[in-house]
Write a structure and sequence with these properties.
Helices cover about 30% and strands about 30% of the residues. By secondary structure, it is of the alpha/beta class. Helix 1 (about 15-25) runs antiparallel to helix 2 and helix 2 (about 30-50) packs across helix 3. The structure holds uracil.
């Protein structure tokens, strides 16, 4: 779908819209939330991985031999969920491409400053061949952009170029997109929807509330 950001791809798919409506609904049951979020995550991850490099191969079917394609395994694919809500995306991503490495990054938001506070980093100290790595940073909610910027910066510092980093979110606020695109103009971002704004507590409006609370059913109605 068209939007005013150069490198932002917004998914335009009726099944995605349908499931987005479910997860926005505060009365959606935990079961409905989980299943609907998984459907959105599948569509997002298929789109976000659309440009992975492939290589030609030869395969023998029960009927005949043919040329075919596989994801080029000379590249290492990294899915980096920002804990904890990013797990919803990485679980689906892992099903789609089990050969990927899941490298968790843990940050929580300091509610006073809205700045990310690191508590976990499962990325290696150094990547041996950073040019052959594709990193997908996964965070369902792109709100202020503070934790997203911290995660993307981490991979840049470890030598991954911005062309090899893709950011995936379910919902994005303009404030977060402006922050992320402003800091990293070359970063590709996939999202299912761009919402209106943030509220005073930096929650996305209309959004879906706290994604982690809703996913893990720690949500107080
Ligand atoms: N994180 C969430 O889980 N929800 C928001 O609306 C913003 C950040």
């Amino acid at each position: 779908m068209e939007n005013s950001y150069k490198n932002v791809i917004v998914i335009n798919h009726p099944v995605c819209e349908h499931n987005m409506t479910n997860i926005r609904d505060r009365n959606c049951s935990p079961d409905c939330f989980l299943n609907s979020l998984r459907r959105v995550a599948e569509i997002l991850m298929f789109e976000a991985t659309r440009h992975l490099p492939v290589k030609c191969c030869h395969v023998e079917t029960p009927v005949a031999e043919c040329d075919s394609f596989k994801i080029d395994d000379s590249y290492k694919i990294v899915f980096a969920p920002i804990l904890r809500a990013g797990l919803a995306l990485s679980e689906i991503a892992k099903e789609i491409y089990p050969e990927a490495s899941i490298q968790h990054v843990g940050m929580y938001r300091d509610e006073a400053t809205l700045e990310p506070v690191w508590y976990y980093d499962k990325t290696p100290v150094a990547y041996s061949n950073p040019d052959k790595i594709k990193v997908f940073v996964l965070d369902p909610m792109l709100a202020t952009g503070n934790s997203s910027k911290a995660a993307v910066s981490l991979f840049l510092k470890k030598g991954i170029s911005i062309e090899n980093i893709i950011f995936v979110s379910v919902l994005a606020a303009p404030e977060g997109l402006n922050a992320l695109c402003g800091e990293f103009p070359g970063l590709k971002i996939y999202t299912a929807h761009i919402d209106k704004t943030l509220n005073a507590r930096a929650y996305i409006v209309p959004g879906l509330g706290d994604a982690g609370d809703r996913l893990f059913n720690t949500f107080e109605k």
